[in-house]
Design a protein that fits this description.
Blueprint lengths: L5 E11 L4 E12 L4 E6 L5 H8 L7 E6 L2 E2 L7 E4 L11 H11 L4 H14 L15 H14 L4 E5 L7 H18 L2 E5 L3 H7 L2 E6 L4 E7 L14 H17 L1 H5 L1
Parallel strand pairs: 3-8, 3-9, 6-7, 7-8
Antiparallel strand pairs: 1-2, 1-4, 4-5, 9-10
Keywords: ATP-binding, Nucleotide-binding, Transport
Pfam family, one: ABC_tran
Protein name: ABC-transport protein, ATP-binding protein
């Protein structure tokens, strides 16, 4: 058996509230296989983004085990690419230069930066806009640059926190199709946070529903839809049935919040 790409055992996270400690994450148990696409869903405040931030090395945790390829995660690293809902592009750099900036930090030469950045700009279908500044790009284009940047240094894992949450419905569907195309061609492990259950079913191999107070993984769903995925699948009986199951799990997991 090969080592899981990501392994989490008994992970707990507390925050200091104004009156008491808040148990944000409780005994999280999770394994992601190599090339697996897993989505985290759940009500607001269940700890989805906190968990992803911990995996990214941007937050600490109180106890438990957190490993990638069998090695402890002790901070941010080039083995994990991160894409947030906010595009976090440098406004004074062009689309290509934003990708090059990340590659320079990874230690590549100027020539390597140009070549690799250009390749990834083409990968996200922005080659005609390589020299455009962020202010000249639409929201979907900005997010494509952010994805190109995250993929450019070839991480083993892509961590995405509501990356399409700020986009209109049509652009969101286009970005979902683009992401599945990139994932199917280049195969890497993805941990994806979303509030959109339809999006989770469309993209994922597996969906983890989280409940609240404290945040914990309450249900796991395997997505048996064939690949490559397409938008026509969204109207199939199998797709709609799974979507209803996941929504029911989220509702059940949010009852603790409603009772407080």
């Amino acid at each position: 058996m090969s080592e899981p790409k990501l392994k989490i055992e008994g992970l707990n996270k507390w925050y200091s509230g104004r009156k008491s400690q808040v148990h944000a994450l409780s005994d999280i148990e999770l394994e992601l296989a190599d090339n697996e696409f897993v989505s985290l869903v759940g009500a607001s405040g269940c700890g989805k983004s906190t968990l992803l931030s911990i995996v990214a090395g941007l937050q600490g945790f109180d106890n438990g085990v957190l490993l990638t390829d069998g090695a402890p995660i002790v901070g941010p690293g080039l083995d994990r690419g991160v894409v947030f809902q906010s595009y976090t592009l440098l406004p004074w750099l062009t689309a290509q230069q934003n990708v090059e900036f990340a590659l320079k930090a990874a230690g590549m030469t100027a020539a390597e930066c140009r070549d690799v950045a250009r390749h990834h700009i083409e990968l996200v279908k922005l080659d005609k806009f390589a020299d455009a500044f962020p202010s000249q790009l639409s929201g979907g284009m900005k997010q494509r640059v952010a994805i190109a940047r995250a993929l450019s240094y070839r991480p083993k894992m892509l961590l995405m926190d509501e990356p399409f949450g700020a986009l209109d419905a049509l652009t969101r569907h286009q970005m979902q199709e683009l992401l599945t195309q990139i994932w199917e061609e280049h195969r890497l492990t993805v941990l994806f946070v979303t509030h959109d259950v339809e999006e989770a079913v469309y993209l994922s191999d597996r969906i983890l529903a989280m409940s609240i107070n404290p945040g914990r993984i309450s249900a796991t769903f395997s997505v048996g839809l064939s690949r490559p995925r397409n938008q026509e699948m969204i109207s199939t009986v199998e797709f709609i049935a799974l979507q209803k199951e996941v929504l029911a799990a989220i509702r059940a997991g949010s009852q603790g919040e409603l009772e407080h």
